[in-house]
Design a protein that fits this description.
With about 250 residues, this protein is α+β, with helices and mostly antiparallel strands. Helix content is about 25%, strand content about 45%. The protein is built from six helices and 16 strands. It has helices spanning about 55-70, 105-115, 165-175, 190-195, 200-205, 235-245; strands at about 1-5, 10-15, 20-25, 35-40, 45, 50, 75, 80-85, 90-100, 125-135, 140-145, 155-165, 180-185, 205-210, 215-220, 225-230. It has a five-stranded mixed sheet with strand order 4-3-2-8-13. A four-stranded antiparallel sheet has the order 9-12-10-11. The chain is globular, with a radius of gyration of 21 Å. It starts with a strand and ends in a 6-residue tail after the last helix. The model has no long low-confidence stretch (mean pLDDT about 90).
């Protein structure tokens, strides 16, 4: 993803309401990630995850990426973009297909997931993530990996995370104006949960709340699978603004 010969690197960028953060991570042999570079810049031109001034946010992204390049000593050419705004929605869906051969193959897996995500989405939305929760084959349920198992019909329960496609396009445009390619767009609540939650917590049942400046991201896990994800467009800035009003003092 980055022009580097010696290290296998990955970059993440989040354009938040209060700050833009770029992280450069080195992927180690055991698949853990060591952060080797960071760039932080205060945000301008964005409110509650939606861009209201493209030129201002582009300048912020440029500064953040440049700082990360300096601290990591590498040139960033592409990255994964994390997004969160009030137009992020989730829905749980079910797909069912016949098993074509005696046992489940990768083709059957792709087919049943395609069926599950072929549903009506909110207006102007596109799918960010299709997350399988569990599979069922005939009378057997709760299957995590059905490959190789025998049966007649297979069902999958999936969690779909969608976002307004025009808002996503604007975020991607802000990054690409900095001459950097966006490899993948990720819901920031999902990214945060993957970063901080353990497997045991997800199995026992846990709700992760990520409080930002403009939005609050929720992700809920039960029995090891994501069950719900939401974005509330009221967060730290709203609290600070209320305190400012109550005590007749400046926001800052």
């Amino acid at each position: 993803m980055i022009k580097s010969i010696e290290k296998k690197l990955i970059v993440g960028l989040e354009i938040g309401t209060t700050k833009v953060i770029t992280l450069v991570g080195e992927i180690l042999i055991n698949d853990t990630i060591k952060v080797i570079g960071i760039g932080v810049c205060s945000s301008k031109g964005i409110e509650k995850g939606c861009i209201n001034n493209l030129d201002e946010i582009v300048q912020c992204v440029q500064k953040s990426i440049k700082k990360a390049e300096i601290t990591s000593n590498c040139q960033i050419s592409s990255l994964c973009l994390s997004v969160s705004n009030q137009h992020v929605n989730c829905q749980n869906e079910i797909g069912m297909v016949p098993i074509l051969k005696e046992e489940v193959t990768a083709y059957d897996l792709d087919n049943v997931i395609h069926t599950a995500k072929s549903v009506k989405l909110p207006h102007e939305h596109h799918i960010l993530h299709v997350i399988p929760k569990d599979y069922s084959i005939d009378q057997q349920s709760g299957i995590k990996n059905p490959i190789g198992l025998s049966g007649i019909r297979m069902q999958v329960k999936v969690h779909l995370i969608t976002c307004n496609k025009n808002i996503t396009k604007n975020m991607i445009k802000a990054v690409e104006k900095c001459h950097v390619k966006v490899d993948q767009v990720i819901f920031s609540g999902l990214a945060s949960s993957k970063a901080v939650l353990t497997e045991d917590e997800c199995n026992l049942g846990v709700c992760m709340i990520d409080i930002g400046g403009g939005t609050v991201d929720f992700t809920t896990y039960i029995d090891g699978s994501i069950q719900d994800s939401q974005v509330i467009p009221y967060a730290g800035n709203a609290v600070t603004n209320d305190i400012s009003y109550a005590f007749s003092t400046s926001f800052h």
